[in-house]
Amino acid sequence: PELLLRTPGKKQEVHEFVALTDRNRPIRVFRLSEDGSEPNDPNEAVSVSYLDSTIQRGPASTVANCHGWVFLDSQFLIPGEAVQEILDDNGYETVSEPKAGDVIVYRSENRYIVHTGLVRGVLNDGTIIIESKWGTEGVFLHDPEGTPYSTIFEYYRSPRPDNRVKIVPADELPMDE
Fold this sequence. Notes:
By secondary structure, the chain is mainly beta. The protein has two helices and twelve strands. The strands form three sheets. It has a seven-stranded antiparallel beta sheet. The protein has a three-stranded antiparallel beta sheet with strand order 3-2-12. Strands 1-4 form a two-stranded antiparallel ribbon. The radius of gyration is 16 Å and the shape is globular. The N and C termini lie far apart (54 Å). Mean pLDDT is 86; it is low at 36-43.
């Protein structure tokens, strides 16, 4: 099967809200424009093949990208570089044997974070089931190698009860002392 990955709109910072890591580091959040402006270059759309074993679980949505789906409860888009800040500040450590609730982080050959998802389960035979949002497209269940983003990945676990990062109004940011 084929899927066209695209970004239908321009990314614009949301100035009214920020996400806060556990160390109170602000993370800028974004939305795609709804003002009728031209989308990002349509030539940047990429047609990708995916495995027949991939299952779409949720519809396309421009509200969040994969990182916003994992860390911000599908409320905003956040850039890949913010993911490293979240991992650092929220006590995440790499693990070799993932379990449900862990985060999978995909990286480019240059080690840039290009995609994130959640481990939804590990079957008795060791098969790992990942759920992730593919850009502004749908949410998919797949194996770890089953995304169009990268085959370079690591699993992360945090002692936190969940992966959600706090979202606060920008005017309520904690002041440095």
